[in-house]
Amino acid sequence: MTFLQKLIKPVAFLLILAMTTVTWGCQTTTNAGQGAGIGAAAGGVIGGIIGSRSGSWAKGAIIGAVLGGAGGALIGNYMDKQAAEIDHDVEGARVERVGEGIRVIFDSGILFSTGSATITSTSRYNIEKLARILNRYNETSLVIEGHTDSIGSDDANQSLSERRADSVANLLEAYRVSGRRLSPIGYGETRPVSSNETEYGRKLNRRVEVLIYANDDLKRQADSGELRY
User: Fold this and answer.
1) Residue 12: is its pLDDT beyond 70?
2) Nearest CA to 1 among 220, 113, 180, 159?
3) Taking every annotated instance into account, which residue ranges of this chain make up the domain OmpA-like (predicted)?
4) Is 140 left (phi over 0), alpha (psi -120 to 50) or beta?
5) Is 61 strand, coil or helix?
6) How far apart are CA 210 and CA 105, in angstroms?
7) 152-171 pLDDT, tens digit each
């Protein structure tokens, strides 16, 4: 699979969203207030995605900034509450609030045995807890990304990352998260967040990320000034 082919799905998927770029390392705990002052921006999406080939999704283009003013603040508050619950209830997950989206990061070593795409029994329980929260905050869509380190062949890493993303998406669906909300995709070794020259860096690169953002219905509700939850 060529890199261009790998980009087709996320590019087509993300182009329907209004997005804004951020500098890597910009992480906030509460974004409701920030969302009130952010307007929608779609420029640079393609360049952002391509630029993130050597970094995480947040380095190139951020999910969010779909609404400004009061609507943006409402979505920010909705995401703040959801992120806080995930952070509190889901063990082994690192939670980041970025813009009007949420980034949930799982170390693949926690979710899977080495070289496997079968989720461990302990991790199944944590994915179930994540699913319960997602079902309470059901006005969101999700991208599930699989990532690997650079050990092994490109093709093997690409296949493993895709199977791991699919495993997480399938388990979420088994726990009643609508499949229409889920978009799994594997990036293999193409998006490292650290150096593959050290074991610590490779450990960081072996991960599954769940990216959560407002769906169209939530945007409409926020634009009208009231959310139903």
Assistant:
1) no
2) 159
3) 98-216
4) beta
5) coil
6) 6
7) 999 999 999 999 999 999 99
Whether residue 115 contacts residue 152, with contact meaning beta carbons closer than 8 Å, is answered with: no
Q: How many helices (H) and strands (E) does the chain have?
A: 10, 7
Dihedral pair phi/psi, residue 141, rounded to 5°: -115, 160
- CA–CA distance from 15 to each of 18, 41, 62, 208 (Å)? 7, 11, 12, 22
The residues spanned by each domain of the chain are 3-224
Per the document, the length of the chain is: 229
Of the chain, the percentage scoring pLDDT greater than 70 comes to 70
24: CB partners within 8 A, 6+ apart? 55, 56, 58, 59
Mean predicted confidence (pLDDT) in 170-183: 97
pTM of the full structure? 0.76
Q: Which fold has domain 3-224?
A: 60s Ribosomal Protein L30; Chain: A; (3.30.1330)
d(CA 37, CA 99): 11
